[in-house]
Amino acid sequence: MLTQKGKDVIFYNVYRDNASPVAKAIILSIDRRKLVGGQELGLEYCEVVVNYVIKRDAILPRGIGNMNTMGQAQGRCIA
C-alpha cells in the first residue's frame, strides 16, 4: 500500500455547492483503526490536520463533540 501520510488535500463542501473548496489539510494517518474524536477512522476517512480554512462556516463531514465547522477545526486534527 502506498503511503498517503504528509500529502496535501483539499476539502470540498459536502452539503452545498460540492465544487467549492472549503479548506486545505495534510494527511496524518490512513490507519482505519486509528481513533479520532473517539471513533475509528474506518475505510472512508483519514486523519488530517486542517491548516488553512477558506470557508469557515462549512460543515465538517464528521464533527467531533462541539466542533462542527471548518472554522472550529482550523489547526486541529479531524477525520
From TrEMBL:
Top-level taxon: Eukaryota
Short name of one Pfam family: Transposase_23
Domain Transposase Tnp1/En/Spm-like residues, every copy: 9-73
Protein name listed in UniProt: Transposase Tnp1/En/Spm-like domain-containing protein
Species whose genome carries this gene: Triticum urartu
